[in-house]
Design goal:
The protein has 324 residues and is of the alpha+beta class. The chain folds into three domains: 57 residues, Winged helix-like DNA-binding domain superfamily/Winged helix DNA-binding domain (Arc Repressor Mutant, subunit A), CATH 1.10.10.10; 205 residues, 2-Layer Sandwich (BirA Bifunctional Protein, domain 2), CATH 3.30.930; 42 residues, SH3 type barrels. The protein has nine helices and 14 strands. Helix 2 crosses helix 3, helix 7 crosses helix 8 and helix 7 crosses helix 9.
């Protein structure tokens, strides 16, 4: 780890605390000149580092820049095996992780980006991913013995993890619009996209890429017109370390379910579901059918009743519903 990274680790673990250049040099076993150079480099990356005579340097409490150091300080032991790569910009975190998976990367490889230029949602839709105000992450999973149907549960598990993370960090109540959209106060704040590679011979999942995009605070120029009535944010304004804390808590919650108690999330998913009892549109190829959402079952399938009285259990698909 270079001097800059060591210095950022020290600052992230002690935000608001001042360290003299001499103390930093001694802690990191480098020269005062190397400390000054590292401080300037971090400032060039946008970090607000205060310098006060006779006190030293301090990372400002309001700093909210995604970094491995900023995320790792919040991670619990269940995430110890994760390999984090933090990028200022990328085309798509899912694409990056898929490429790494094909090259043999191990389970736990995780990409977190500050901006995506080609963010993807379900059914080939784009996912608006502006700089500085969101978290865009993808996690490589290699669940042994999973069928494609079992892999679908990763999406619903992640939805519960996202709700729990949002509530833990922000205090806001979060709910799930079946199957993978997270809402706060009637607005979508998070979307989840899971992609998997399935072996042709045995039908088992070789790897899965779990992607999550979270709108943390309002974009500088607002949301595009087509999203203004739909999209919301976890916070109404940027929070000091909000992105790092939220990213870490999502990983904590997800890995806790995935590695130790995968079946426990189902009741939490059902409890957080926003659609039972509502009138919905079930979007089918080429048409949509009106229905009433009755319940979410033990497999997180949506039970619906159509206008003709017929009921159906939906294991995948798309629905439209007004949640405001």
């Amino acid at each position: 780890m270079g001097t800059k990274d060591q210095l950022l680790t020290l600052f992230e673990n002690n935000k608001g605390t001042y360290f003299s250049g001499e103390e930093i040099a001694e802690r990191l076993s480098v020269s005062r000149a190397a400390v000054w150079k590292a401080v300037q480099s971090l400032r060039g990356e946008g970090y607000h580092i205060d310098a006060v005579q006779n006190k030293g340097y301090s990372l400002a409490l309001g700093t909210d820049i995604l970094s491995e150091q900023g995320i790792r300080k919040y991670l619990r032991p269940v995430c110890s095996g994760l390999q984090l790569e933090i990028l200022p910009e990328i085309n798509s975190t899912n694409t990056r992780v898929r490429e790494k998976a094909e090259a043999g990367a191990p389970e736990g490889y995780t990409v977190v980006a500050n901006r995506q230029t080609e963010g993807r949602g379900r059914r080939g839709r784009g996912f608006y991913s502006p700089a500085d105000t969101g978290i865009y992450m993808s996690l490589l999973l290699r669940p042994g013995g999973y069928t494609a149907r079992q892999a679908a549960s990763l999406t619903t598990l992640a939805a519960v993890a996202a709700c729990e993370a949002i509530e833990s960090v922000s205090g806001e109540r979060a709910g799930i619009k079946w199957v993978n959209d997270i809402y706060v106060a009637g607005r979508k704040v998070c979307g989840i996209l899971t992609e998997a590679s399935v072996g042709l011979e045995n039908g088992l999942v070789e790897y899965a890429v779990l992607g999550a995009g979270i709108n943390v605070s309002p974009p500088k120029d607002g949301f595009p017109d087509e999203l203004t009535d739909i999209a919301g944010t976890v916070f109404q304004e940027a929070q000091g370390d909000g992105k790092n804390h939220l990213a870490a808590e999502f990983l904590n919650c997800f890995m806790s379910y995935y590695s130790g108690r995968p079946g426990e999330y189902v009741q939490n998913y059902r409890r957080r579901s926003l659609v039972p009892g509502r009138e919905i549109l079930v979007e089918l190829p080429g048409r949509a059918r009106r229905a009433t959402a009755l319940d979410v079952d033990e497999e997180c399938h949506l039970i619906v009743k159509y206008e003709d009285g017929r009921t159906e259990s939906l294991s995948s698909g798309e629905i439209s519903v007004k949640l405001i």
